[in-house]
Amino acid sequence: MSFRASSAERWSRLSLGLLLLAQSITALEYWGKLAALTTKDGLSLPYGFPLAISSGLPFPSTLGASFLIGVWLSAAVVTWLSRRAVLGLAVMVLINGYLLVLDQQTYSNHLFLLFLLGAIRLFASAPLAGLWEMPVLLLKTQITAVYLFAAVSKLNPDFLSGGILGRELYASGFSPGYWTPPPEVLCLAAAGVVLAELALAGGLWLARWRGCFMAMGMALHAGMVLLMPGEERLGIVAFALACISVYPLFVMEGSAQTAFPSQDSSFPKWGRWLPKEPRLGQGTSGALEAAGQ
Amino acid sequence: MNHRKAILSLVVALQFGVPLYFLVASPYLSRWSWQMYSREPLRDQLVLIAPDGQETQVNPRDYFGYFRREMDYADHLEAHLRRQLEPGWRIERRRQTS
């Protein structure tokens, strides 16, 4: 019997691939960041209460930082190549967590999001029978929380006046001659961003309009990548990919069993591009039923 | 199935509760709460005052290897600068209002 990957598995693989791409880009970004922190004679900036305990963590040397980034990138590659990606995922989540609490200078919102998405996926890999659908739901609620609070936190005069957008647009050098649009246009654009983020928080859950909201989300992220300052662009690309990596999980509604195919022991460990001869296990049969095959 | 509902409820409560706490509790741009580019990061400004009264505003970017808007640096940087102050120099904190 020849085997075709189910639709659900393809969506799930796309989701994981986007997440790993975001992890790899963030690793490259942090290579530069850690190099700046370890070579410049700058101050460290530990967290206050309750994260002050993290000030005991060792700061990597220049060589140590390069090694850390090497391990991070290797973990992303191993996770992509391996069907049982628990170890690679665990390594990435640990590195994400270490950098998040190491110093205020090594925190970033996209690193935090990658940490959370990785941790939820890792939770899916834990041997907890009967919990399959939970991580999928939690990944979706996580991205809903991101869009919701991104929108709600912008409901203030600073942002709605268009001032912040104007400043970022100017800093990006995107507009010719560092020209910025008139305040009225910036004001409208700011309101549009807030409305778009609010719409994404709810709209991705609506099956009927999901395609439109996904296109809107991708356009919003593409706009951010284009319009934000160059020094932050790599991080914004990683943030966009991390957010968009959850979109496929909204599409594969009803087939949660295959959200994490690494769990399915019927799949071969290596050689995903080769024709597969599966032993139909519990997870796979559920997926095939769900995909109507 | 109750344990599943309990775990699910707890994690979802954290996903929405933690950002809500930071949104409500802090007037500043906060971490852990998805407030990217949402407001101006108003922090106390540090000003160095020379013996002749001349003032120089401290640029935190000169002291940190990587600067982020959410960083709560004023206490730490003030302590660092005080350790290096020469006699006659003073340092003042000024609340940024807009």
| Proportion in helices of chain B | 25-40%
Total of DSSP H or I helical runs spanning 4+ residues of chain B = 2
Q: How many E-type strands of chain A? A: 0
Strand content of chain B: 5-15%
Q: How helix-rich are the residues of chain A, as a percent range?
A: 55-70%
Task: Give me the secondary-structure category of chain A.
Answer: mainly alpha
**Series of H and E elements of chain A:** HHHHHHHHHHHH
Segments of chain A where pLDDT lies below 50 for 5+ residues?
Answer: 255-259, 261-293
The termini of chain B sit apart by 52 Å
Our estimate of the beta-strand percent of chain A is: under 5%
Question: What average pLDDT do the residues of chain B reach?
Answer: 89
Calculate the terminal CA-CA distance of chain A, rounded to whole Å. 13 Å
Helix and strand sequence of chain B: HEEHE
Our count of helices of chain A gives: 12
Tell me the radius of gyration of chain B.
Answer: 20 Å
Shape of chain A: globular
Description:
The complex is a heterodimer of chains A (293) and B (98). Chain A is mainly α and 293 residues long. In chain A, 63% of the residues lie in helices and 0% in strands. Chain A is built from 12 helices and no strands. Chain A has helices at 7-39, 62-81, 86-102, 109-125, 133-152, 157-160, 163-172, 183-203, 210-227, 233-244, 247-251, 282-290. In chain A, helix 3 (86-102) runs antiparallel to helix 4 and helix 4 (109-125) packs antiparallel against helix 5 (133-152). The longest helix of chain A is centred in the first third of the chain and has 33 residues, at 7-39. Chain A is globular. Mean pLDDT of chain A is 81; it is low at 255-259 and 261-293. Chain B has 98 residues and is an alpha+beta fold. Chain B has 2 helices and 3 strands; from the N terminus they run αββαβ. A 3-stranded antiparallel sheet of chain B has the order 2-1-3, with helices on one face. In chain B, a hairpin with a 5-residue loop joins strand 1 and strand 2. The mean pLDDT of chain B is 89. At the A-B interface, helix 1, helix 4, helix 5 and helix 7 of A face helix 1 and helix 2 of B.
